[in-house]
Amino acid sequence: MDDRLGPLLRRMRTRAGLTQERLAELSGVSVRTIRRLETGRAADHRLGTVSLLADALGADAEDRRRLTALLRGAETAEETPPPRRPEPSAIQRTLATAAAELAREVRHRWRREEEQRRVHDPFPLPVRWQDAPAELTDHWENVQRLGPGAVASRVDLCGDLHRVADVYRKVPSRRLLVLGRGGSGKSVLTIRFLLDVLDEWAVPDPVPVIFSVGSWDPATTPLRDWLVGRLLRDHPHLARRVPSGATLAAALVDADLVLPVLDGFDEIAEGLRGKALDVLNGTSWPLVVTSRRAEYADAVAAAGAPLVWAAGIELTDLTLEDLAGYLPRTDRTAAGRGDPAREGWEGVLARLRAAGTPSAEPLARVLSTPLMVSLARTLYGGTGQADPAELLDGALFPTERDLEEHLLAGFVPAVYRDLPDEPSAGGGRGHEGWEAARVQHWLGHLAHHLSLLDRDRQDLAWWHVGVSLRRSTRITVLALASGLCVGLVDWVVDMTCTSVGAGEALIQGLLLGLAAAVAFGSVHSAMVALGAGVFEPSRVRLGLRRVRGGVGRGPGRTSTIRFAGVLGGTVMGVGWACAAGVQHALYDGVSLTDGPVVRATLTNMLCFGVIIGAAAGVVFWCTLFLETPFDVAAAATPVRLLHANRATVLRQFAVQGPALAVLVAGNGFLVVRTLGDALGPLKWSPADACLTGAIGGLGGATAYLLSFTAWGNWLVVARGWLPLTGRLPWRTVAFLDDAYRRGVLRQTGAVYQFRHIRLQHHLARAYRERQPRFSPVLLTGGTAHGRAPEPEDTRVRP
């Protein structure tokens, strides 16, 4: 049987709103037979059985024709053996397997996300659409890819959320534009589209993947490279290499096995939207693009043409009938349904239908988008304490903006009130003890932090949280943490392995820690100047067994690690020599300006710089050979990626610490033998080698991992400095995961996003208004994006 019969029956049943059990009752066909037909495992396909199902489903003539055609195709296929197909090549099998893994992971992730957003509680809001304006779409002759002189047949694309995949299949070019105003349900539509397509997906169909396109800079990054980078970020296992040397992510994109669903075209910086549209018009990929209508129209005017070969739909507003069927069913509390003094949603809707109240019209317009309906439901549908009738108070809320600001302002306090303390996905528990005011302050800091990044980002990546600090503050904090680790290791080793007194060991530890802070701060500053100020999480893990098709090590990555290792070790060695000279002057009463002291210090600076610098360069470079790709779904969420990166960093320390200690000790003997004749007698006893190796290995490895890894930066800044200064809670991971569980945040691959960009902007603006250091210009947001301009030294370098 043609394998499309099962998906067609399943789609018809979903459209009819029936379960398999209910369909069995109506048709007289067993649930087991229905399940086998829908999954393609049925061996006997009787026309009578399918006819019974079609009658129960109320199938129209078109659906019956398609069912009959599929059944006839199945009978012919049983009589005629299928032609032999050539065996797929190794690379085709590899890509097919990778595409299947990607489809499985994407389906699981977005199905969970749809449940988290409570789209089906109590039922999906009726998101509907109509054809987009003709001036914003291409000619239908181009959409249908017809030749010269051919006349296109107009296709009606109107529909609702249950038929979004069917609408896409009506577009021969497979390029669809989705327009709608803010909060109209574009993101919900893209999720439903993705899940509907994946329900019927099979190799070699492209896998639909949602990309939040607002962070793309078309002026600096080709679209193909940006897509590959996002795939690698959200699916690190795609870093494996194919025989050609490309990553699996790049190979899937190049083989047209990825269908980009570009969500949020309007979030691209205003001056870049025309360029972005030009880039999209230079490709022939199937695409789904979502945008607000006004911003897309401006991009069309700037580019001089709409998205080529693209048909378009525009989401329509919710009606009062839609609200009447939805809002009363969201209030399940006894107080909400039994309090005679409480007007409730039924009374509000009755007054909206009357349309005689001056405040009724603004409220009806506000509640015409799913976003505002969802906020209103949260404020008034769950507690039974507040009466939605207050929304009709014209004195309190005279305009639409006042109503929207009220709903946005009340959302966070509402979701942090009276929520059961349930286990979270991150392994922690909900925190009812968190006060709403403190939560709003923390969320406001994160929202304001996003406004400081390039182009008002939506992606809240845990490895970027530290960028909310000024660059100088961030480097100072990381340098001090590195110096503290080195000084502590030196103090412990001296107290344990030598006869040095406690006071002298403390002074030596402080001096060495200060030298390490200067060394690592200098290297960090140099890397920031070279464009590596924010360290991305590792896409690999460490293992002793190499995996076939392992990750590649490009020259850029190898050079960066060599540079950081050699430079950091050299500067650390020079600082160590200077600290030893200062200690010698303090305890032996000599002057730092004496000739012998100066000569000894310079000799130590050269020797220690070579010893530690060479050892660090070798160790950090050799660590690359232990890297293997992540397993499938190892980093499907921000919390999992954080845990995976933490495990990788700890394994790096377990390897690098002992290896660096051994190499430092061994390098010392080699340097003494090589430079002894030129520099004069040099002392490097076995005791010196062991002590220096232990301090340099353990302290240096710890300081390196804190300063130059994503998890180390997160630990120092997001788990240390920001909570210490009150800008984030101490349990930052639990807080973010709890905010996601409550619906304030959402997950898009490996990053969080606020529930909606409107909520993000509201929280950021409220945060700035509470901070006295922001000027009135910042409070009003005097930029084209309605956000504050950046303070000096806070922009992330590319």
Description:
It is a single chain. Strand 5, helix 12 and strand 6 form a beta-alpha-beta unit. The C terminus is likely disordered. The chain is mainly α. The chain has five domains: 75 residues, lambda repressor-like DNA-binding domains (434 Repressor (Amino-terminal Domain), Orthogonal Bundle); 222 residues, Rossmann fold (3-Layer(aba) Sandwich), CATH 3.40.50; 96 residues, no CATH class; 82 residues, Orthogonal Bundle (Arc Repressor Mutant, subunit A), CATH 1.10.10; 229 residues, no CATH class. Helices cover 57% and strands 6% of the residues. Helix 18 crosses helix 19 and helix 21 runs antiparallel to helix 26. The protein has 30 helices and eleven strands.
